[in-house]
Amino acid sequence: MRDGQIYAGGAPALPGILPLLAEGLVFQAGGRRLIDIERLRIAAGGTTIVLGPNGAGKSLLLRLLHGLIAPDAGRLAWAGRPADAATRKLQAMVFQRPVLLRRSVAANIDYALKAHGEPRAERAARVAQALEHGGLAGMARQPARTLSGGEQQRLALVRALAVEPAVLFLDEPTASLDPAATAAIERLVSEAARNGTKIIMVTHDIGQARRLGDEVVFLHRGRVVEHSDATAFFQDPGSREARAFIAGELVL
Amino acid sequence: MQNFADPFSLAFRLILSGDAELLTIVLLSLRVSLTAVFIAALIGMPLGAALAVGRFAGREAAIVLVNALMGLPPVVVGLCVYLLLSNAGPLGVLQLLYTPTAMIIAQVVLVTPIIAALSRQVVEDLNGEYAEQLRSLGVSRAASVPTLLWDGRFSLMTALLAGFGRAIAEVGAVIIVGGNINHVTRVMTTTIALETSKGNLALALALGIILVTIAICVNAAVGMLRGGARQVVHA
Amino acid sequence: MRRRSFIGAALALAAGLWLAAPQAEADDRFIIVQSTTSTANSGLLDAILPAFTEKTGIEVRVVAVGTGQAIKNATNGDGDVLLVHAKPAEEKFVAEGWGVERFDVMYNDFVVVGPAADPAGVAGSSDVVGAMARIAEAGAPFASRGDDSGTHKAELRLWKDAGVDVAAASGGWYRETGSGMGATLNAGVGMGAYVLTDRATWISFGNKGDFGVVVEGDPRLFNQYGVILVNPEKHAAVKAADGQAFIDWLTGPEGQKAIAEFKIEGQQLFFPNAAPKPAGQS
C-alpha cells in the first residue's frame, strides 16, 4: 500500500515553498475583524494543527493561507516570495464536506491531474495509483456521488494528494465521519506527512490534534493566541483560553 | 364548432394513416426546432455560464436583460428577422427569406434567451458548490465554465426542453419568415393556423393534438436518455 | 464511456432527423409568388400549379397573406410575382416602378354572409349598398377584416357608397378583426356578425355554423385579380424570366382553362378573364 515514490509531495528535490509567513493579516466582514494576525510563520516539515473554538476563524485562516480569499490587509510570503501561480500549484486542499464532481470516481482524480497540467499519457497510471492508495480501486467507474461519506472524503483526499502537493490544507476533513472512516483518513494524512508533504489542518477534535499534530496554532477570535510544539501545548498550554479549551470547557 | 370528440379520433386516424404530407410537416417541424435549439444551446449555455461565474460591470443588468428576453414576442422576432433577411434588408443577398433556415434563425433568437437564463441559474447554483474546490485545483473562473456545464448537464436538459417547447409551439415568427409555403416551410403550427383560417377546426385541433403528442414524446425520450445516463454517471 | 453513448445517442437522433427531413433548400428552380389567402386557401393554386411546374420545371412557392402585406413584401423584393385583388393598389404599385406591368387574370365575387336569424333583414337582397346601409341602421354586428387587404378595401368602398361612417361605429356594431379572411369568418360566426367575404373562401370554409349567403349578385361585388412581375430593376434578385413564364402561362390558354375548371362542391369559383394576347407575345 505504501508508495513513497508517488506520494512524496514536497520531497527535497522540489523547490521548497516553505516557510509560509503571514504578516499583518486582516480579514473583515460587516465591520468586524474576523482575522487579525500580526505574524504567523509555518515552517517546513511535520503537521501543523490549527485549533480553536467555533467561530475562532480557523476555516477562514486556512482559506486566506491557501489563497481562496483575499485579505483586506497584510501579506503572505512563501519562502520569501509572494503567492503566485507557481506556489499555488504546489498546494492542495480538502474541505470539510468533500466537493466531488458529478462524474466517476476515476474521472474526479483525472480532472485534478488535468487541471494541474499533467500530460495525458501519464494520467491513467497516476489515477490508478491514487485509487489503489485510497482503497477505491474497485469503485473506479462508480459515480463519485454514490460513494459513502467516508469513501467520498477518501476520494477527495487522494485526489488532493494525486497532484503531489508540497503543502496540503485540510479543513476538518473528518468532522462528519464515523470512527472507522476517520481512522482511514488519518492513516492517509500521517502517511503523506511522513513522505514529506507539509500538512496544515484545522480540527476541533482534540484527540485528533494529539494523534496527528507536531505543532499547534491556537486561534481565538481571529488572533493567534498560542503557537507551540504539540506536546508542550497539550501538557502546559500558555493561555487561559487554550487551557479551558483542552479541558473541554466552553470557550467564549 | 364541431363535436369536441371528433378531433381526437381524427388525430388518431391521421397518425395511423401515416399520411405522407403530415409526415413531411412533422419532420420539418422537428428539424427546424431541434436545429434551432442545438444552435441556441451552443450560444445560450456558455452565455448563461458566463453570466453565472463572471465578475464584470453590468452583469446584473445583463441578467435582467436576458431574463426579460425570455418573454420576447415571436411576432416581433419574426418581423425583425424578416426585415433583416428581406431583399430590401441588409442580409437580403443571402436569399434566406422563406426558407427553413430563416425559420431556424428566428427560433434561435427566441430560444437563446431561455436557454441562457435557465443555464445561468443552473450554473450559478452548481458554482456555489464547486467554486472553492475548482479554485483550489487551479481552475480559473473562465476555465471552470466547461466543467460547470458538463456537471450540470442533467439540469441543463430542462433548459433545453424549455427551449424546445418554445420553438416547436410558436407560430408568430415562423409564419412571417417562412411564409407557410406548402412543402417548403410549412410546419405544424403554421398548418394549424392555416386550417383554423379555413374553418377546419377539427382538423386544426387534431394537428394540435399531434403536436402535443410529439412534444411529449421528445420530452419522454430525453427523460429516458437522462434516466439511463444518470443511473450510471450520477448519484 | 457512458457519456459518449449519451452524446452519441443525441447526435444520432439529430442526424437522423436531418437526413429524414426533406431537403427543401436544395437549389432547385423556383419562384416565389406573393398572393392572397383567397387564392391559396380556396385550393385554387394547389389545383392549377402542378400543371405549370410539370411543363416548365419551375416550382411555385406561394406566400399567402393579405393583399396589403403581399404588396409590401413585393415592394421589399421578397417575391418574384404578385397575384392579388386590389386594382387601384396594384396600379399604384406599377406606377411607382415596383412592378413591371399588370395583367388581368380572373375574377370572382364577394358575398355578404350572415346568421340565419338575419337581424338586419337583408337576406335575398342583390343590392349590396342598400343592404349594408340597413345593417348599419339596425346596428347589427358586422365583422370587418380591418387589415388593409383587398377584401377590406372593397368593403370600405361599399360603406362609402352606402354613406356609412364605419370609423364612428368601430368597437360598437362594427368590429375589425385585423385578421385574415378565415379568422374573420370564424369571428363573425362566433358573434353572429355579417361578414363580407370572397365566395371562394366561403365555399371552402369549414366552420359555417348556421351562416349562409345573404347578399350576392350585385355587380359592385365583382372582384378582379391581377398579376404583376416584380420589377427586376428595383430588385436584382427577382427571377424575371421564370416569373414572366408563370405570368404568361397563367394568362395564356392553359392557365385560363385550368382556372375555369377548378371547382369546389360543383361550383366554379374563379372566372378567367385575361385579355387575349397578340400572337407574338407568348
Automatic annotation (TrEMBL), chain A:
What the entry lists under PROSITE patterns is as follows:
ABC_TRANSPORTER_1, ABC_TRANSPORTER_2
Keyword set includes Nucleotide-binding: yes
Identify the keywords attached in UniProt to this record, alphabetized.
ATP-binding, Nucleotide-binding, Transport
Single annotated GO MF: ATP binding
Task: Report the InterPro entries cross-referenced here.
Answer: AAA+_ATPase, ABC_SmlMolc_Importer, ABC_transporter-like_ATP-bd, ABC_transporter-like_CS, P-loop_NTPase
Q: Name one Pfam family in it.
A: ABC_tran
Asked whether the UniProt record includes Nucleotide-binding among its keywords, one would answer yes
Annotated ABC transporter domain ranges read: 20-246
Q: What superkingdom does the record give?
A: Bacteria
Give start-end of the signal peptide.
Answer: none
**What is this protein's name?**
ATP-binding cassette domain-containing protein
Q: What is the lineage of its organism?
A: Bacteria, Pseudomonadati, Pseudomonadota, Alphaproteobacteria, Rhodobacterales
Automatic annotation (TrEMBL), chain B:
CDD domains linked: TM_PBP2
What GO cellular component entries does it have? plasma membrane
Instruction: Tell whether Membrane is among the UniProt keywords.
Output: yes
Q: What is this protein called?
A: ABC transporter permease
Q: Please tell me whether the keyword Transmembrane is annotated for this protein.
A: yes
Where is it localised?
A: Cell membrane
- Transmembrane stretches, by residue range? 36-54, 61-85, 97-118, 159-181, 201-222
Q: What topology in the membrane does the UniProt record assign?
A: Multi-pass membrane protein
This protein's source sits in the domain of life called: Bacteria
Q: Where is the ABC transmembrane type-1 domain?
A: 26-222
> What keywords sit in the KW lines?
Membrane, Transmembrane, Transmembrane helix
Q: Which organism is it from?
A: Thermohalobaculum xanthum
**Gene3D superfamilies given for it?**
MetI-like
**One Gene Ontology biological process:** transmembrane transport
- Chief location: membrane
TrEMBL record, chain C:
| InterPro entries the record matches | ABC-Tungstate_binding (IPR052738), PBP_domain (IPR024370), TAT_signal (IPR006311)
Q: What are the alphabetically sorted keywords of the record?
A: Signal
Source taxon at top rank = Bacteria
Extent of the signal sequence: 1-20
The record's Pfam families line, in alphabetical order, gives: PBP_like_2 (PF12849)
Give every PBP domain span: 22-254
Listed PANTHER family: EXTRACELLULAR TUNGSTATE BINDING PROTEIN
Q: What is this protein called?
A: Extracellular solute-binding protein
Biological source species:
Thermohalobaculum xanthum
Q: Which classification does the entry list for the species?
A: Bacteria, Pseudomonadati, Pseudomonadota, Alphaproteobacteria, Rhodobacterales
